[in-house]
């Protein structure tokens, strides 16, 4: 069978579904409109599904083949971001949120794969599970679905992410990694505590602003002087809050940031050193700190053997010249990593650039846009990968 033709046959549906979903983005774990829309499409296809799998808005659909066999899961995230859209698209969101990371496309591409595989269910053995997941953006969707049984009986899993992945990759091309592909998604908070004073009498203070300044600068030395230069790591302070007026030294300063690493050992090292360095600097200035580190999604590490199989399937689906292996990870995070801790799987980047006013904007930008002509490639890759795995 020609999977490319089958993907083309559902391309118009995928675009319609994507545009409908793009207008109703919802954030977090509770996505009532989005999940209702997905369920209505599954109903139209006559596909079985279960709702409330770990989370109220989570959906697991199932298509069974003509005989018993292996089980593969395909996963799509459904949530949006609290970003006001500025794309100017005719189907732009008007509810104050935005699908600024492409999850509307992920959901629609998966619905396309559901439709095709449901039509082909007499031509494969085993089962395909389709995981429609909320709360990826807050790293709080995959774990509850796993705990709710989404992976029960599943032998392998595939996920996909659209967008402008790299300037070096043309639209419609897919990127794979046989190992570490994305970083952990961790957060930390730090309260730097001193003693406040009048700004004209700094000697009466233990200035937390000065302490915070030294801490912010010194934390970057962990990356440049303590990590192996070929072991990626990131520490970013994204929030600094302190003081209320120009001539008063405050009693404390609040910092919040993210730490990223692509292996667990480095992740744990960063978590420890951020706290140690911050506390010791504060002590040197006669202050103290309150430090909390929150482990989010772990590093995303693909299974090498399974990835190479999917890589081959993708080449069959869209052409071997359009699939590429990358040799270094990116520092973004993805809670798909939780699934990969449980079973073999792989995550795929699909390049889908679209310019707005001459510029292709990155993920999470208010002008982020997608080239819909590339969606059928995503459908073809998912379908071919599932068929090859189940019929192996």
Task: Please give a structural write-up.
With 392 residues, the chain is α/β, with parallel strands linked by helices. The chain folds into 2 domains: 3-182 and 299-390, Aminopeptidase; 186-294, Alpha-Beta Plaits. The protein is 34% helix and 24% strand. It is built from 10 helices and 17 strands. The strands form 4 sheets. Strands 1-2-4-3-5-17-6-15 form an 8-stranded mixed sheet, covered by helices on one side. The protein has a 4-stranded antiparallel sheet with strand order 10-12-8-13, with helices on one face. Helix 4 (103-119) links the parallel strand 3 and strand 4. The mean pLDDT is 97.
Fill in the keyword field for this structure:
392 residues; alpha/beta; Aminopeptidase; Alpha-Beta Plaits; 2 domains; eight-stranded mixed sheet; four-stranded antiparallel sheet; 10 helices
Which structural class do the helices and strands define? alpha/beta
Distance between the termini: 15 Å
User: Biggest β-sheet, characterized?
Assistant: 8 strands, mixed
Which fold name fills CATH's third level, the topology of the largest domain?
A: Aminopeptidase
Order of helices and strands: HHHEEEHEHEEEEEHEEEHEEHEEHEH
Low-confidence stretches are none
Assign the CATH superfamily of the largest domain: Zn peptidases
Overall radius of gyration: 23 Å
Coarse shape = elongated
The CATH architecture category of the largest domain equals 3-Layer(aba) Sandwich
Tally of alpha and pi helices: 10
Q: What is the count of structural domains?
A: 2
Mean pLDDT: 97
Q: Tell me how many strands there are.
A: 17
């Amino acid at each position: 069978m020609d999977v490319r033709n089958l993907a083309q046959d559902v391309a118009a549906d995928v675009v319609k579904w994507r545009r409908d979903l793009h207008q109703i983005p919802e954030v977090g774990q509770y996505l009532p409109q989005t999940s209702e829309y997905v369920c209505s499409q599954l109903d139209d296809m006559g596909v079985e599904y279960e709702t409330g799998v770990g989370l109220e808005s989570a959906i697991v659909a199932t298509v069974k083949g003509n005989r018993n066999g292996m089980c593969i899961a395909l996963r799509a995230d459904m949530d949006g971001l609290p970003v006001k859209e500025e794309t100017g698209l005719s189907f732009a969101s008007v509810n104050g949120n935005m699908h600024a990371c492409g999850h509307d496309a992920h959901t629609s591409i998966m619905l396309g794969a559901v439709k095709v595989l449901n039509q082909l269910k007499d031509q494969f053995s085993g089962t395909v599970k389709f995981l429609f997941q909320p709360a990826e953006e807050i790293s709080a969707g995959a774990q509850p679905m796993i705990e709710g049984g989404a992976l029960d009986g599943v032998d392998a899993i595939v996920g996909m992410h659209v967008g402008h992945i790299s300037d070096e990759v043309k639209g419609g091309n897919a990127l794979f990694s046989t190992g570490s592909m994305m970083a952990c998604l961790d957060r930390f908070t730090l309260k730097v505590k001193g003693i406040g004073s009048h700004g004209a009498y700094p000697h009466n203070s233990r200035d937390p602003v000065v302490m915070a300044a030294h801490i912010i600068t010194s934390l970057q030395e962990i990356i440049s002087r303590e990590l192996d230069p070929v072991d990626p790591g990131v520490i970013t302070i994204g929030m600094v809050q302190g003081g209320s007026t120009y001539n008063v030294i405050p009693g404390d300063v609040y910092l919040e940031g993210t730490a990223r690493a692509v292996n667990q050992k480095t992740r744990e090292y960063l978590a420890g050193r951020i706290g140690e360095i911050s506390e010791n600097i504060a002590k040197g200035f006669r202050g103290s700190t309150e430090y909390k580190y929150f482990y989010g999604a772990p590093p995303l590490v693909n299974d090498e053997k399974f990835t190479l199989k999917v890589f081959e399937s993708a080449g069959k689906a869209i052409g071997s010249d359009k699939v590429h292996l990358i040799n270094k990870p990116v520092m973004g995070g993805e809670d798909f990593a939780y699934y990969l801790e449980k079973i073999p799987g792989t995550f795929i980047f699909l390049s889908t650039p679209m310019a707005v006013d001459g510029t292709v904007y990155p993920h999470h930008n208010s002008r982020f846009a997608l080239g819909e002509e590339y969606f059928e490639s995503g459908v073809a890759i998912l379908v071919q990968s599932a068929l090859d795995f189940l019929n192996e």
